[in-house]
Prior knowledge:
Helix content is 51%, strand content 13%. It is built from 3 helices and 2 strands, in the order βαβαα.
Amino acid sequence: xxxxxxxxxxxxxxxxxxxxxxxxxxxxxxxxxxxxxxxxxxxxxxxxxxxxxxxxxxxxxxxxxxxxxxxxxxxxxxxxxxxxxxxxxxxxxx
Length: 94
């Protein structure tokens, strides 16, 4: 076991909000401040970001395909979006 819990972690990936035209969304400034705080606190880890455009759309498509109850969707959309962010990051770095 290490200080980060049960798993050996070497990278933290954060979704960066971009608009469809490629510009950073209004929320991007808060996300950049959050990434800076992470880098200060976890300075031995790599902190990276990935474009999170359309991850929520993909999450909703997945939930529709799986016929997930609409009342449950709001509770899991961010989790599914996070999976797509991580999957994108892993595939980008193969």
